Amino acid sequence: ALAVPKPTASCKNKLGEKRHDLENDVEINILLATNSPSKTAAVKAAAKEVFAGQTVTFTNATASTSGVSEQPIGNVETLKGAMNRIQSVKSYYGNEKCSFDIIIHVQFQY
Fold first, then answer.
1. Long-range contacts of 75-82 (CB under 8 A, 24+ apart)
2. Is the dihedral of CA 73, 79, 85, 91 positive or negative?
3. What gap in Å lies between CA 34 and CA 105, rounded to an integer?
4. Cβ-contact 24, 15 below 8 angstroms
């Protein structure tokens, strides 16, 4: 189980800021930079274990771009695609004044 320290300040943050201190009953907002059902299910299963006992809310990004080929080949292209998708959703949702604690994207390579 994840040991989470008690907060020393408000848990509210802006998109992109790290949320350092959480109480055990604080809601965690996760933005998934994917609409893939299998990737979403995998992230939800992992979060259930990592954040056991906490309320976790998931939002799937409506649009994100990777800027790489549909089937990335190699570590460099795979990492670039994942980072591009995260930047894409940060730009989009940052303009919407949304607040997420964690942004996750799962990039698969061949």
1. 75/109, 77/109, 78/107, 78/108, 78/109, 79/107, 81/107, 82/106, 82/107
2. negative
3. 6
4. no
1-25 average pLDDT score: 44
Place of tokens 């795979």: 78
What's the token pair of residue 34?
Answer: 């994917």
pTM (predicted TM-score): 0.66
105, HSE (Cβ side, Cα atoms, 13 Å): 23
- In three-state secondary structure terms, 56 is strand
Single-letter residue type at 103: I
DSSP character at residue 18: -
Residue 81 has pLDDT above 80, yes or no: yes
pLDDT averaged over the chain?
Answer: 75
Are the beta carbons of 107 and 75 closer than 8 angstroms? no
